[in-house]
Design goal:
heterodimer; A: 450 residues; alpha+beta; 6-stranded mixed β-barrel; 13 helices; 11 strands; B: 227 residues; alpha/beta; 6-stranded mixed β-sheet; 4-stranded antiparallel β-sheet; globular
């Protein structure tokens, strides 16, 4: 039999019993709808919580520190991680060659030093000691930089641009924070001078620290999102492009070791950030960095726990949502069995005039999968509408409670595909028993049947 | 020899007892014959027809059609046998009520995977040949009994089988219409070389149209000589 003919016969059969087909389809639609709304609730909640962390970029970043030259540290580490290699290597500096080596590890997207510079910010008559941080261009649109409250992200990494936190911007003498965009501010910082220049302020045996001043154009103002963006790292009162910060020859005062390093004119950093392609890559990369002789740390483990919790939540929601679908699949079985009883004689005739068992089985399987496909599509629409409705109500409540409105329900593309395919599969499974029964109808009995 | 039955037996188990519907029947039918299967009700004639049609399997004995033993065939091969070798005509027509005359005739062609245009052309041809050229799109309930039986004959002819198996084809028709149907069957036998096996309990009708009769009684051939 040609498949289009099977399809035609199946559609004809469904049309013969429009009401029954419609009711069965509705049952499947409710089943799929409940499953879709439950799963989309799980996905939505996950995006609302874990998703925000994910976008903050902290879960695909690894922070690297040099091994600390503490007494007994080596023995301690050997006890803590006896199988770890690289423990007995000498303490390595986090310098540019280390950055290069880490950059060539598989799945590493970028490596950049964490530069936090104490600065004095001057604007008109305002002056305060603050902390400036170097922000890589790749942070555009990520983490706290997802939304720039006023202005925009750095246009390029070479210019003297800066972004301010809204909190600092508010303290500057300007009627409105937004008026600061485009204005110049002055940053004063300590820079390493040429070795042995022997100026005043000479500390640490020959290392020169100079007061340096530089003017920066304010391009953006960022309001730090309240809530759990811990470790989101690169947010500070003043943010300047990382390349700019590196070019300034600043001394990282947070790390005496790095200050000492300046003596040899080989800058090293107190810590680096490694960005990997995907959060699941952190384990591998961390291990390799440790093998290189550094300490590495990421928050991905914490995320794994949260993810596990959400997987359990998804399963629970999925199971609850599946109950209606299970009931609906019994509806399909019932409808098809009824239909076969009604059409027993017809099946007998079909067999008598040369219809094979396979042909007849396929007609009924196609019938139930049509019910499944239609139910799946309507179910998705239904699930979406239910999600929207609950979301609307929930957000009104959340906003009244002072929370932030968001999408509690999220229907990703995969859920649409999975919803329809699952609906068809469930319908096929439900239809397989009746279809098998139809195929095995005894034609002689069927032809005597009224 | 197109059909060859050898000690053909079909027993049914009905609760505790065994019904011997066919009890050692042997006969042969040659190609192009018009054979009447006679007998009272319960004599086993319909059972015999169903066995030849491949709708049922013998309990014992051999039944060869075109030299192939139906008893040894798989269910799939039996379906092919029904599709290609035999065309069935029933007392109660057994048309599908929701399909038009033409759709009913195309159904066996669908199972034979004939393309749409080809099978619609063939169905129109067949309906015209049984005198229903103008009734193509009528549903069975818009047709008279005689017309319905003509549709059913056209359907039986769809895949050009060699054998037509008619089970009381005139049982639901008045005698005038019945003669028309039997004339049609005889024409198919004479002009188109079809082998016709017709089950009937009407001796007069059978003797008028068939060339030879096999009479069954209680599952046995009554007069083996004629067989």
């Amino acid at each position: 039999m040609i498949f289009s003919d099977t399809l035609q016969l199946a559609v004809r059969n469904l049309r013969e019993a429009k009401l029954r087909t419609a009711l069965t389809t509705l049952g499947v639609a409710i089943g799929i709808g409940s499953l879709v709304s439950m799963v989309s609730l799980g996905v939505g909640l996950q995006e609302q919580t874990v998703g925000r962390f994910m976008k903050s970029g902290i879960f695909n970043s690894i922070t690297v520190f040099p091994r600390q030259p503490l007494r007994n540290a080596r023995a301690f580490r050997r006890a803590a991680a006896p199988n770890e290699r690289g423990i007995d290597k000498p303490i390595l500096p986090l310098d540019d060659s280390a950055i290069g080596k880490m950059g060539s590890i598989a799945n590493v997207r970028e490596v950049y030093p964490n530069l936090r510079i104490p600065v004095e910010l001057k604007y008109k008559d305002f002056s305060d000691f603050l902390s400036a941080v170097g922000v890589p261009m790749s942070s555009r649109g990520e983490g706290v930089f997802q939304t720039v409250t006023y202005g925009s992200f750095f246009p390029d990494e070479a210019g003297d641009y800066c972004m301010l936190s809204l909190e600092v911007a508010g303290r500057l003498p300007e009627s409105q924070a937004s008026h600061l965009i485009g204005k110049q501010i002055m940053l004063t910082y300590a820079a390493a001078g040429p070795a042995g220049a022997g100026m005043a302020g000479d500390i640490l045996g020959g290392m020169n620290l100079q007061r340096a001043e530089r003017s920066f154009k304010v391009v953006g103002i960022i309001d730090r999102e309240p809530g759990p963006s811990f470790g989101g790292g690169i947010f500070s009162a003043v943010m300047i492009p990382l390349a700019r910060a590196r070019g300034m020859g600043v001394v990282d005062l947070a790390n005496p070791q790095s200050m000492l390093r300046q003596l040899s004119q080989k800058p090293s950093y107190s810590s680096l950030t490694i960005r990997v392609a995907h959060p699941q890559d952190t384990d591998d990369v961390e291990k390799k960095v440790r093998e290189m002789g550094f300490n590495a740390f990421s928050l991905n483990d914490a995320l794994q726990g949260a993810k596990r919790a959400f997987i359990v939540l998804d399963i629970i929601l999925g199971v609850i949502g599946s109950i209606a679908l299970a009931v609906a699949s019994l509806g399909i079985v019932n409808t098809m069995v009824m239909s076969i009883l009604e059409r027993t004689r017809e099946i007998g005739v079909m067999k008598a005039i040369g219809g094979g068992e396979g042909d007849i089985r396929l007609i009924f399987l196609v019938e139930s999968s049509i019910i499944g496909a239609m139910g799946g599509v309507f179910g998705l629409a239904l699930g979406w509408m239910v999600g929207r409705a609950i979301n609307l109500g929930a957000n009104i409540y959340i906003e009244r409670q002072g929370g932030r409105a968001g999408d509690l329900f999220s229907i990703p593309w995969w859920l649409i595909a999975v919803g329809v395919v699952f609906s068809i599969l469930v319908s096929l499974a439900a239809g397989s028993y009746p279809a098998g029964r139809a195929a095995r109808v005894d034609p002689i009995k069927a032809l005597r049947h009224d | 020899m197109i059909i060859e039955a050898n000690d053909l037996t079909r027993h049914y188990i009905m609760g505790e007892s065994v019904v011997r519907a066919l009890d050692g029947v042997s006969f042969t039918v040659n190609e192009g014959e018009f054979v009447g299967l006679l007998g009272t009700s319960g004599s086993g004639k319909s059972t015999l027809l169903n066995l030849i049609a491949g709708l049922d399997r013998p309990t014992e004995g051999g039944l060869k059609v075109f030299g192939r033993n139906l008893a040894d065939m798989s269910r799939h091969d039996l379906a092919l046998h029904r599709r290609r070798n035999v065309g069935m005509i029933f007392q109660s027509f057994n048309l599908i009520p929701t399909m038009s005359a033409r759709e009913n005739v195309t159904l066996p062609l669908m199972f034979a995977a004939v393309a749409r245009e080809e099978r619609e052309r063939r169905a129109e041809e067949l309906l015209a040949s049984v005198g229903l050229a103008g009734r193509q799109l009528h549903k069975p309930n818009q047709l008279s009994g005689g017309e319905q039986q003509r549709v059913s004959i056209a359907r039986a002819l769809a895949n050009s089988p060699s054998i037509l198996l008619a089970d009381e084809p005139t049982g639901n028709l008045d005698s005038k219409t019945a003669h028309g149907i039997l004339e049609l069957l005889r024409e198919l036998q004479k002009a188109h070389g079809k082998t016709v096996l017709m089950v009937t309990h009407d001796q007069a009708l059978a003797s008028h149209y068939s060339e030879r009769n096999i009479t069954l009684l209680d599952g046995k051939v009554l007069d083996p000589v004629t067989a």
